[in-house]
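Justification of computing resources. Each target in the renewal requires a structure prediction run like the one illustrated here; the chain below, 178 residues long, is used simply to show the kind of job we budget for.
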Amino acid sequence: MFIFLRKGGKIYLPLILISVLMAGCFRHYYKIDTKDKVSPEMISILESTEKIYFVHFNDDIYFLQKMRIVGSDIEAEIEPVTDNLISKAYTRKNTSMKYKPNSEGNILLHVHLYVDKNKQSFITENSPKVIIPMTSIIRMDVYDKDKKRTNTNMTFSSIGLGLSILVGILTVLFNIAY
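Resulting C-alpha coordinates:
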Protein backbone atom coordinates (compact mmCIF):
# COMPACT_ATOMS: atom_id res chain seq x y z
CA MET A 1 0.00 0.00 0.00
CA PHE A 2 2.90 2.33 0.78
CA ILE A 3 4.20 1.98 -2.78
CA PHE A 4 0.68 2.45 -4.17
CA LEU A 5 0.21 5.71 -2.23
CA ARG A 6 3.54 7.06 -3.36
CA LYS A 7 3.20 8.99 -6.58
CA GLY A 8 5.75 11.27 -8.10
CA GLY A 9 8.00 11.13 -5.03
CA LYS A 10 5.25 12.39 -2.71
CA ILE A 11 4.51 10.36 0.40
CA TYR A 12 1.21 10.94 2.09
CA LEU A 13 2.52 11.58 5.60
CA PRO A 14 -0.85 12.41 7.17
CA LEU A 15 -2.22 8.97 6.34
CA ILE A 16 0.82 7.24 7.78
CA LEU A 17 0.74 9.44 10.89
CA ILE A 18 -2.94 8.77 11.52
CA SER A 19 -2.39 5.03 11.11
CA VAL A 20 0.44 5.05 13.64
CA LEU A 21 -1.62 7.11 16.11
CA MET A 22 -4.51 4.66 15.81
CA ALA A 23 -2.38 1.88 17.31
CA GLY A 24 -2.91 3.40 20.77
CA CYS A 25 -6.69 3.69 20.60
CA PHE A 26 -9.69 1.82 21.98
CA ARG A 27 -8.31 1.50 25.51
CA HIS A 28 -10.14 0.62 28.71
CA TYR A 29 -9.44 2.40 31.99
CA TYR A 30 -10.01 1.69 35.68
CA LYS A 31 -9.88 3.93 38.72
CA ILE A 32 -9.30 3.38 42.41
CA ASP A 33 -11.87 4.66 44.89
CA THR A 34 -10.14 5.08 48.26
CA LYS A 35 -12.08 4.98 51.52
CA ASP A 36 -10.38 5.98 54.77
CA LYS A 37 -12.97 4.41 57.04
CA VAL A 38 -14.37 0.93 56.63
CA SER A 39 -17.64 -0.30 58.09
CA PRO A 40 -19.28 -3.73 58.07
CA GLU A 41 -22.04 -2.30 55.87
CA MET A 42 -19.51 -1.24 53.20
CA ILE A 43 -17.97 -4.71 53.15
CA SER A 44 -21.43 -6.33 52.97
CA ILE A 45 -22.37 -4.21 49.95
CA LEU A 46 -19.10 -5.10 48.20
CA GLU A 47 -19.55 -8.80 49.00
CA SER A 48 -22.74 -8.85 46.94
CA THR A 49 -20.72 -7.71 43.89
CA GLU A 50 -18.37 -10.70 44.11
CA LYS A 51 -15.18 -8.69 44.61
CA ILE A 52 -11.77 -10.24 45.26
CA TYR A 53 -10.29 -9.13 48.58
CA PHE A 54 -6.63 -8.54 49.39
CA VAL A 55 -5.17 -7.53 52.73
CA HIS A 56 -1.88 -5.67 53.14
CA PHE A 57 -0.06 -6.54 56.39
CA ASN A 58 3.10 -4.43 56.62
CA ASP A 59 5.01 -5.64 53.53
CA ASP A 60 3.00 -8.81 52.88
CA ILE A 61 -0.09 -9.14 50.70
CA TYR A 62 -2.63 -11.94 51.00
CA PHE A 63 -5.85 -13.06 49.31
CA LEU A 64 -8.80 -13.19 51.64
CA GLN A 65 -10.92 -16.27 50.99
CA LYS A 66 -14.11 -17.50 52.63
CA MET A 67 -14.45 -14.06 54.15
CA ARG A 68 -17.25 -13.29 56.57
CA ILE A 69 -18.11 -10.47 58.90
CA VAL A 70 -18.50 -11.32 62.56
CA GLY A 71 -19.56 -8.27 64.53
CA SER A 72 -16.95 -5.62 63.77
CA ASP A 73 -14.30 -8.12 62.65
CA ILE A 74 -13.46 -9.79 59.38
CA GLU A 75 -12.71 -13.50 59.56
CA ALA A 76 -11.14 -15.17 56.55
CA GLU A 77 -8.62 -17.64 55.28
CA ILE A 78 -5.48 -16.09 53.81
CA GLU A 79 -3.27 -17.15 50.93
CA PRO A 80 -0.08 -15.39 49.76
CA VAL A 81 -0.28 -13.42 46.51
CA THR A 82 2.09 -14.22 43.64
CA ASP A 83 4.73 -11.70 42.55
CA ASN A 84 3.25 -11.49 39.05
CA LEU A 85 -0.09 -10.26 40.38
CA ILE A 86 1.53 -7.90 42.87
CA SER A 87 3.60 -6.10 40.24
CA LYS A 88 0.62 -5.45 37.99
CA ALA A 89 -2.16 -4.07 40.09
CA TYR A 90 -0.99 -2.22 43.15
CA THR A 91 0.05 1.13 41.79
CA ARG A 92 -1.93 3.91 43.39
CA LYS A 93 -2.35 6.94 41.19
CA ASN A 94 -4.77 9.83 41.14
CA THR A 95 -5.56 9.25 37.47
CA SER A 96 -7.23 6.24 35.97
CA MET A 97 -5.07 3.43 34.67
CA LYS A 98 -5.28 1.23 31.55
CA TYR A 99 -6.17 -2.44 31.50
CA LYS A 100 -6.83 -5.10 28.88
CA PRO A 101 -10.36 -6.42 29.34
CA ASN A 102 -9.61 -9.93 28.07
CA SER A 103 -6.50 -10.66 30.12
CA GLU A 104 -6.76 -8.23 33.02
CA GLY A 105 -10.52 -7.84 33.38
CA ASN A 106 -10.48 -9.25 36.90
CA ILE A 107 -8.65 -6.13 38.11
CA LEU A 108 -12.10 -4.52 38.30
CA LEU A 109 -12.96 -7.00 41.05
CA HIS A 110 -10.11 -5.97 43.38
CA VAL A 111 -10.63 -4.56 46.86
CA HIS A 112 -7.49 -3.87 48.91
CA LEU A 113 -7.60 -3.52 52.68
CA TYR A 114 -4.62 -1.89 54.39
CA VAL A 115 -4.06 -2.82 58.03
CA ASP A 116 -2.44 -0.32 60.40
CA LYS A 117 1.07 -1.46 61.32
CA ASN A 118 0.54 -0.42 64.93
CA LYS A 119 -2.68 -2.35 65.43
CA GLN A 120 -2.66 -6.10 65.72
CA SER A 121 -4.67 -8.56 63.71
CA PHE A 122 -4.95 -12.09 64.89
CA ILE A 123 -3.51 -14.80 62.69
CA THR A 124 -4.40 -18.22 64.01
CA GLU A 125 -1.25 -20.31 64.47
CA ASN A 126 -0.85 -23.39 62.24
CA SER A 127 -3.90 -22.28 60.29
CA PRO A 128 -4.45 -19.98 57.33
CA LYS A 129 -7.17 -18.11 59.26
CA VAL A 130 -7.04 -14.45 60.19
CA ILE A 131 -9.22 -12.12 62.25
CA ILE A 132 -9.02 -8.45 61.28
CA PRO A 133 -10.79 -5.86 63.47
CA MET A 134 -12.44 -3.18 61.31
CA THR A 135 -10.77 -0.56 63.51
CA SER A 136 -7.34 -1.74 62.35
CA ILE A 137 -8.12 -1.07 58.67
CA ILE A 138 -6.75 2.35 57.75
CA ARG A 139 -7.63 2.36 54.06
CA MET A 140 -9.71 0.46 51.54
CA ASP A 141 -9.10 0.75 47.78
CA VAL A 142 -11.94 -0.38 45.52
CA TYR A 143 -11.00 -0.88 41.86
CA ASP A 144 -13.72 -0.03 39.34
CA LYS A 145 -14.11 0.77 35.66
CA ASP A 146 -13.57 4.42 34.76
CA LYS A 147 -16.61 4.65 32.49
CA LYS A 148 -16.18 8.33 31.62
CA ARG A 149 -12.58 8.04 30.46
CA THR A 150 -13.18 4.72 28.67
CA ASN A 151 -16.22 6.11 26.81
CA THR A 152 -14.36 9.31 25.87
CA ASN A 153 -11.45 7.25 24.55
CA MET A 154 -13.79 5.02 22.55
CA THR A 155 -15.54 8.05 21.02
CA PHE A 156 -12.33 9.77 19.95
CA SER A 157 -10.86 6.47 18.74
CA SER A 158 -13.93 5.92 16.55
CA ILE A 159 -13.70 9.45 15.16
CA GLY A 160 -9.98 9.00 14.48
CA LEU A 161 -10.56 5.67 12.78
CA GLY A 162 -13.33 7.16 10.63
CA LEU A 163 -11.10 10.08 9.65
CA SER A 164 -8.19 7.80 8.78
CA ILE A 165 -10.46 5.68 6.56
CA LEU A 166 -11.80 8.85 4.91
CA VAL A 167 -8.29 10.18 4.30
CA GLY A 168 -7.29 6.80 2.87
CA ILE A 169 -10.25 6.73 0.50
CA LEU A 170 -9.70 10.34 -0.59
CA THR A 171 -5.99 9.65 -1.14
CA VAL A 172 -6.75 6.63 -3.33
CA LEU A 173 -9.39 8.59 -5.28
CA PHE A 174 -6.99 11.51 -5.70
CA ASN A 175 -4.28 9.17 -7.01
CA ILE A 176 -6.68 7.53 -9.47
CA ALA A 177 -7.96 10.90 -10.73
CA TYR A 178 -4.47 12.13 -11.47
